[in-house]
Structures are given as C-alpha cells and as structure tokens.
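In response to the reviewer comment on reproducibility (Comment 2.3), we provide here a single inverse folding case reported in full, input and output, so that an independent group could reproduce the run without further information from us. The structure tokens appear first.
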C-alpha cells in the first residue's frame, strides 16, 4: 500500500492553481461546466480557508471540523465585504473585478499563511494529511484488474459524454427583455424633465432581447395619458439590441406630468415593460 501525504503549503499552492484554472475557464470557456465546478469553492471556501491559515498556522489551533466550518463562514463574510468595497470603485460589481479581487485576496492570504507556517517548527505547522491507500497493481488478481480497467474506461466514456452534452446543449437561462431610457448623453442622468412649451426633449430608448427566440416589439409613448408617439416593428433575435434617439415635443403645459414609455411584445395586449419620467412644461410667457 502507498500513502500520499500533502506537504506543508502544498494545499495553498493547489488552491491558487485551481483559482488560476477558474480564471482561464471564465476567459476562454464561457459555457464550460468547469466554471461552476471551480467557482463554488473559489467563492465559498478558498477565501476563508486561506484567511484561517493565516490566523491559525499551528496544527493544534483548530481541529479539522472547525477549520472547514470557519473557512466556509469566513468566506461568506469576506465575499460580500469585497463586493461592497468594489461598489464604491469605478470598476463596480461585475464579473471581472469580482474575480480579480477574490483572487488577489486568496493569493495574499495564501502568502501570509505560508509565511507564518514556515516560521514555526515543522512539527507544529498545520499540515493537512491525506492518507489514501493505493493497492499495488502487481498484487491485484486478474479479475480485479479487469474490473478496475472496465470501471476506468466507463468513467472516461461517461465524462466524455457529459462534456460533449454540455458543450452541444446550450443552457437556457432566465427569459427576459431589457428596456431602458437614457439621457441624451447616453447615461442615466440629464433627462429633459424641465421644458418650456414648444421646446423638444430627447432621450435614448433601448431594448435588448434575452428571450431565447425572435421577438417583435413596439413602443408607445404617452404624456399625461395621451399618446404622443409610437415606434413599431422592432424585430430582435436572441441577444439582439436596439437603441435609438427619441425626440418629443409637449403640446401642453403642466407640472410633474407623467411621460410613459410602454414596451409591447408581439402577441400580448398588455404592456410587457413600462418606464416613465416626470416632466414639467412651463408656458414661455411666464419665464
């Protein structure tokens, strides 16, 4: 029988290697199940495990159950805090910045953990053991060798089949349509909400189809419950995007009038999505 022993700090090296593999999978394999397989421990275990390793480098500081429990618990605490910090940066809470910040945190804690372990005598360092007994191939009977060979081939075929299935079958996510209104500068700001009678205002209307099928849309624009415009025949395939400037000219004065943008989907009588702005239109003579 052979016994495999994980040396000190090799667990930290393995964590960082798996983290790099996840980054490569996210960058080059957007539809691979490897992203989920590596992403779960990357978020729910690795940050807390490396932090615990830095805080408690001695093997007698914590037992195995406590280490695992605290690793998961601290990961659940660290990840939201990193997300909160990202929210106040120009990067925002998006996939790439979140992935990078978690990797930097895990790598930093790994280095600190390895440093603190190495300062201890070898016998006192936390050193996860994996006592896996592998029977020698020469000691197996012919029947055992046949069973193991068949099992190995079956596992390879199953893994290959599942890989081919996931690669050829796109996963259908949530079906929805993005509908948005931007200011004339293309930002969620500077909307034309204060106008004088006869003055025109311009906004940018946008629709993005995430319905996993071709969809035809139309947009109805109402001001104070009165229809003032319509955009028809917006045909989009899945992941298709439509964006267009829309200029409106109020025909009456009023304070805090509701400018509505109603998105209709072909085949539905009720609005599919609705957006609105509150605008004030003043008489030119009163300025």
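Designed residues, in position order:
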């Amino acid at each position: 029988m052979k016994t495999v022993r994980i040396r000190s700090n090799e667990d930290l090296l393995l964590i960082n290697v798996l983290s790099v593999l996840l980054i490569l999978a996210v960058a080059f394999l957007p539809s691979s199940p490897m992203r989920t397989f590596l992403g779960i421990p990357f978020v729910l275990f690795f940050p807390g495990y490396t932090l615990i390793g830095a805080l408690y480098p001695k093997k007698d500081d914590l037992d195995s159950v406590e280490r695992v429990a605290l690793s998961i618990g601290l990961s659940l605490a660290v990840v939201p805090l990193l997300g909160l910090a990202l929210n106040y940066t120009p990067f925002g809470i998006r996939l790439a910045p979140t992935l990078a910040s978690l990797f930097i945190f895990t790598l930093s804690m790994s280095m600190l953990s390895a440093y603190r372990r190495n300062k201890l005598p070898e016998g006192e360092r936390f050193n996860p053991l994996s006592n896996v007994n592998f029977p020698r191939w020469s000691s197996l009977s012919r029947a055992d060798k046949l069973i193991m060979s068949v099992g190995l081939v079956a596992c390879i075929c199953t893994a290959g089949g599942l890989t081919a299935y996931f690669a050829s079958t796109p996963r259908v996510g949530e079906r929805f349509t993005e509908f948005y209104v931007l200011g004339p500068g293309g930002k969620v700001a500077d909307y034309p909400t204060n106008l004088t009678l006869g003055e025109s205002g311009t906004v940018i209307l946008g629709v993005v189809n995430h319905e996993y099928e071709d969809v035809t849309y139309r947009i109805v624009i109402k001001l104070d419950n009165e229809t003032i415009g319509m955009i028809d025949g917006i045909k989009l395939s899945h992941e298709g995007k439509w964006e267009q400037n829309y200029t409106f000219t109020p025909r009456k004065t009023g304070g805090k009038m509701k400018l509505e943008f109603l998105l209709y989907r072909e085949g539905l009588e009720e609005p599919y999505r609705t957006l609105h702005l509150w605008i004030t239109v003043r008489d030119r003579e009163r300025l």
